[in-house]
Amino acid sequence: MQPSVRKSAHTWLLATVPVIMLAMFVVPYTLLRTVDTWYGSALFWTLATLAVIAVNVAVSAGWSQDEAAAEPEGQLPGQGDEH
Amino acid sequence: MDSAWVWIGIGLYFLVATCAALLSRSGTAEDMADYFLGGRRMGGFLSAMSYSATTYSAFMMIGLAGLTYAGGIGALGFELLYLCGVTLVLIFGPRFWRVGRRFGYVTPSEMIGHRYASRSAGAVAAIASFVFLLPYAAVQLTGAGYLVSGMTNGAISFTTGTAVVCFAAIVFAMVAGLRSVVWTDALQSVIMVLSATLVVIIVIHQMGGLGGFLGALEDQPGALTVPGEGYFTLSTFIALSLPWIFFSISNPQVSQRLFTPGSLKDMRRMLIGFLVFGFIYTFVSVFWGFAARVHFPDLEAADGATPALLGSGLVPTPLAIIVMIGILAACVSTIDSIMLTLSSMISRDVVGARRGLSDRIQLAAGKAVIPVVAGLAYWFAQLQLDLIAVLSVSASAGLLVMVPPIIGAFFWKRGTAWGVISSVVLAGSLVLGLEYTGTMLLGQGSGVWGLALAVLVFIGVSLATSAPAERAEEFITAARAPLRRRLVSQGR
């Protein structure tokens, strides 16, 4: 996959995470409020978390192309302006 | 349980962990990056296990189990939301890592100070971390104290339990800095998750299998819903969850770990390894709380759920001792990481930066700070404040005020040092005031107000003061991936 296409796909995948997390607040307190069994809120939170882990696996796959062994290393911070 | 068993377990743990710490020591660490960051060469598996051990502490097996005991399934949702929040590492992990290499940062507050071109901003961030992390370290000692006294019905006192863990933490941190802490962490993470999972399997088996276990829970009305029996109101759920969603960037003892992997590939292993570990461990802790709820419905304190389960006949004694070691080791590893982070911050960002001391002297100062931090945490633990989970969250609520400056560092060139200083001081003071007086403004927790004020003040003050444009450009460019850097420089 072209890097720019991959980046765009990753951005979309990442954007699903806040939506899923918002649903993890809202759904158990509304739709599943009275479902007092294991396939209620517990299952919803579990599946939502698995989806988020899958996003993490997919997006971080791009990190495997190791970029930076050759990067300049360990330059000490410049003497910052003092307050 | 006979206290002799517990002492044998503690002795064995100390022996094995000391060996691991000594073996990890390859020569004497002479500079700050070597001692506090393992030379920025940590491998993926070790990093994942150590990140897990640092994050998961007394809070999980005692605090989360206690929270499940007290409030039901809401505890699972709250903890899984934290785990989802670790997705922030996808955005910030590589950026921390790149700027850490480029500019040689040892601590997150040093990064803040350099990015905003102000040592004062770095020092304020370091001091705020100190104020809010100390109670969190103390919570670990409290957990250890409850555990050993609960398991032995008081034959080993709370004070003795905290003292033993405090001593072990100082020894391992002093041996070889992060390198030894990472090895003891990895060892204990594996023990912790395997033994705890085994206990869950045994206990569920004794309760008539998964069907019997779930049936027993469904017999308790509200245990599997929120707000359930009333503990997890939406406000409480938000107040607990919000600080933890940002934990991976707001808590310096874990964000500092983003500087340590040898490569981004190692960071990926760290992230995914941690997510898998956390997922399993969350379920184990919640199952554990539910099992105690079914078997011991009348415990005086919810945090006694795990000790009660381990001290009962439900779990074979040798296995209970292994789990106890795992939990004690979790307490030790979290305190170790906090001590290392705080001592690196104090020595580098408060003492060293002010006086321009050499690396070697800063390192000596850092090592000298370790027992001081441990002593303060020990004193705090003796206060025996209530409910570990709530205390831990209060500490994290305070660290939330660091989130706007951290996000701003990477994504907002207009952010200024005065924005950082004023937002951390004002919002941090607000959180402290609310926590100290136990005030819930409009029914919301201190973290919600602290974060809101921090965002407003950071943006407002930054817009009114002048930003270090050149430094911001240099920093944000260094944080970008090489490909993106090239595209930006070509004007695309």
Automatic annotation (TrEMBL), chain B:
Keywords from the UniProt entry: Cell membrane, Ion transport, Membrane, Sodium, Sodium transport, Symport, Transmembrane, Transmembrane helix, Transport
Gene Ontology molecular functions: symporter activity
Domain of life: Bacteria
Coiled-coil boundaries: none
One GO biological process term: sodium ion transport
Subcellular location per the Swiss-Prot or TrEMBL entry: Cell membrane
PROSITE patterns according to UniProt: NA_SOLUT_SYMP_3 (PS50283)
Family the entry assigns: Belongs to the sodium:solute symporter (SSF) (TC 2.A.21) family.
Protein's UniProt name: Sodium:solute symporter family protein
Lineage: Bacteria, Bacillati, Actinomycetota, Actinomycetes, Micrococcales
